[in-house]
């Protein structure tokens, strides 16, 4: 039996959410509605624990400074430590990788004409650890190995939604050709609308976000044609993080007529958390 993608998960990665968890503030009135939206998700994770998570996220000039900026980077190491982003590493478990599957995906996707940077040592920042905390709570160890897949959405030029969507399709093909019966989830993280800098700091666009969620579910191929400037104009400078969701969506079974439409297991939207609109989806392959 070959490996297969069972589901995709989409979620924001707001660093203040990580701080709220680490400092025991999740029950405070400001935070309670955010975490309430993930209660169902944590139960779903317990009921549907995969063998591996392929976690698409962005590094925030933590592992990759402005000295070196890979567009797409795949973590092939055996483990990854939580990064110190200026106030000490988050008190969360280290991330155990899956070097065999990661190397296989690198082989397949690079031979399919996508340029990936192979990373054999890196620390992982809030872009990766906050989604794990939201979905898994505060366990002593993360429930399964995680392959970190970092996308540059911090320093221009960033990859287009269309390229991300095509990359997702190549990742699905790669996973489907791995000769082991692994259940793999693919996560697309970051977003939703937010801008952290300049005169428009604090921008949130609920109409854009909800239309994005609708179209991500129903017609991701059309959504993938949205130009990057539209994300920046409509969803703020950091709203461009949303192109990462198209990698996960491109890896689902219905894309290119390959299989049935996914089931929407959970959908959640909340404004605001810190400066950011929080969006979350769980889609299951049928
Ligand atoms: C915030 C959101 C982000 O995506 C990020 O990387 C840093 C800060 C915020 O809303 O504060
Ligand atoms: Fe971010």
Average pLDDT taken over every residue:
97
Order of helices and strands: EHHHEEEEHEHEHEHHHHEE
List bound small molecules: 3,4-dihydroxybenzoic acid, fe (iii) ion
Going by CATH, the homologous superfamily would be LigB-like
Unreliable spans: none
User: What is the CATH architecture assignment?
Assistant: 3-Layer(aba) Sandwich
Amino- and carboxy-terminal Cα gap? 17 Å
Strand content: 15-25%
Number of helices: 10
CATH topology: Protocatechuate 4,5-dioxygenase, Chain B
CATH class: Alpha Beta
Q: Radius of gyration from the CA trace?
A: 17 Å
Q: How many domains is the backbone divided into?
A: 1
Question: Describe the biggest sheet?
Answer: 8 strands, mixed
**Shape call:** globular
Q: What is the helix fraction of residues, given as a range?
A: 25-40%
Give the key terms.
single chain, 8-stranded mixed sheet, two-stranded antiparallel sheet, binds 3,4-dihydroxybenzoic acid, 286 residues, globular, 20% strand, Protocatechuate 4,5-dioxygenase, Chain B, binds fe (iii) ion, alpha/beta
Offer a concise description of the structure:
It comes from Thiomonas delicata. This protein is of the alpha/beta class. It is built from 10 helices and 10 strands.
């Amino acid at each position: 039996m070959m490996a297969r993608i069972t589901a995709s998960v989409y979620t924001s990665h707001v660093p203040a959410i990580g701080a709220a968890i680490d400092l025991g503030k999740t029950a405070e009135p400001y935070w309670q509605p955010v975490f309430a939206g993930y209660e169902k998700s944590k139960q779903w994770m317990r009921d549907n624990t995969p063998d591996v998570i392929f976690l698409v996220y962005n590094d925030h000039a933590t592992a990759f400074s402005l000295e070196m900026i890979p567009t797409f980077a795949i973590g092939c190491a055996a483990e990854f430590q939580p990064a110190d982003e200026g106030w000490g590493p988050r008190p969360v478990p280290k991330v155990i990788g899956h070097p065999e599957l990661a190397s296989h995906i690198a082989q397949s996707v690079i031979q399919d004409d996508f340029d990936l940077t192979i990373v054999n040592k890196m620390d992982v920042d809030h872009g990766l650890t906050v989604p794990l905390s939201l979905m898994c709570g505060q366990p002593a160890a993360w429930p399964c190995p995680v392959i970190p897949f970092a996308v540059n959405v911090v320093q221009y030029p960033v990859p287009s939604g269309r390229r991300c969507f095509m990359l997702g399709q190549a990742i699905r093909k790669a996973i489907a050709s791995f000769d082991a019966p692994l259940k793999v989830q693919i996560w697309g993280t970051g977003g939703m609308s937010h801008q952290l800098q300049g005169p428009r700091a604090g921008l949130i666009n609920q109409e854009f976000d909800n239309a994005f969620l609708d179209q991500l579910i129903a017609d991701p191929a059309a959504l993938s044609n949205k130009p990057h400037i539209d994300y920046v104009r409509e969803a703020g400078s950091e709203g461009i993080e949303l192109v990462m969701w198209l990698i996960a969506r491109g890896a689902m079974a219905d894309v290119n007529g390959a299989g049935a439409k996914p089931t929407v297991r959970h959908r959640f939207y909340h404004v605001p958390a810190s400066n950011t609109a929080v969006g979350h989806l769980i889609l299951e392959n049928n």
